[in-house]
Amino acid sequence: MPNLNKHNKKFTYKVHLRWTEQRKGIIASPDKPEIELSTPPEFMGHPGVWTPEDFFVAAVIGCLMTTFLYQAEKHKLKFSRLDIPGQGILEKVENQYIISKIELIPHLVISSTLDIDNAKKIFELAERYCVITNSIKSKIYLTPDIEVKNKGE
Amino acid sequence: MPNLNKHNKKFTYKVHLRWTEQRKGIIASPDKPEIELSTPPEFMGHPGVWTPEDFFVAAVIGCLMTTFLYQAEKHKLKFSRLDIPGQGILEKVENQYIISKIELIPHLVISSTLDIDNAKKIFELAERYCVITNSIKSKIYLTPDIEVKNKGE
């Protein structure tokens, strides 16, 4: 993220949740499309609707991607594809339910074997500088899957 | 959340992020509507698109609401409206940018002054049992705004 080390600025992220019915609500943020939110179905919620647990995992994956994109530009890495499947595990730790871990296996496609080390380094930087992973207690397991695919293949 | 104290079960939340172009991607989760995600505009991202920081705040607010709904049912609290505006603050703490705090001012509408104490207790329980607030380092400032509105007013 640019300029973060240059100035100690504060940034504010506003979100508004309105309860609608049963175990559902509508999440809003200025100038963005509204999203329906629900308790997960396994806790008497509603299927097919985003849950707080999903948003937590989405925040982590999203931050790792956006930090990766910034670092890739800074370190001049070219790539043609980036997919990040991930999952968060909710379980009891010290008698309390928490999201204990988040597992991510990003799949990156680059065009030259010469870029493999640079790509690995950028994943490390993304993990180190991601403001969301630095704000949580969950353990992060990031295992990059780097594929080299020459043009024309 | 029901049954959480009865069984030490594990629950998995799967999310997939696909980079599309520039600093944007598409977030998906099984059977749920896709959501566009971006780096925030202040970090060379795109306006009008959900960001990882927004999702982090949404996860906290969403979890507090869903835990409140569960506790309200358990403690037989009737209410006609629940709105939760909130904001997350990103700033430098010990030389590292993190989401340092999340401020929430839930507005709850109940129909009797006799329910005020019960409502306050339920907000405390929601904060204590919310699995997301228990998974993060950010400090939570929850200040309920409880309004009594008699029917017919």
List the topology elements.
Two copies of one chain form a homodimer.
Chain A: E1 11-21, E2 24-28, E3 35-38, H1 52-74, E4 81-93, E5 96-104, E6 107-110, H2 116-129, E7 139-142, E8 145-148
Parallel strand pairs in A: 5-7, 6-8
Antiparallel strand pairs in A: 1-2, 2-3, 4-5, 4-6
Helix pairs in contact in A: 1-2
Description:
The structure is a homodimer of 153-residue chains. Chain A has 153 residues and is an alpha/beta fold. The first copy, chain A, folds into 2 domains: 1-50; 51-148, K homology (KH) domain (GMP Synthetase, Chain A, domain 3, 2-Layer Sandwich), CATH 3.30.300. In chain A, 24% of the residues lie in helices and 35% in strands. Chain A contains 2 helices and 8 strands, in the order βββαβββαββ. Chain A has a 5-stranded mixed β-sheet with strand order 7-5-4-6-8. Chain A has a 3-stranded antiparallel β-sheet with strand order 1-2-3, with no helix packed on it. In chain A, helix 1 (52-74) crosses helix 2. The longest helix of chain A is centred in the middle third of the chain and has 23 residues, at 52-74. The radius of gyration of chain A is 18 Å and the shape is globular. The two termini of chain A are 34 Å apart. Mean pLDDT of chain A is 94; it is low at 1-5. The interface between A and B is large, with 77 and 77 residues. Strand 4 of chain A pairs antiparallel with strand 1 (11-21) of chain B.
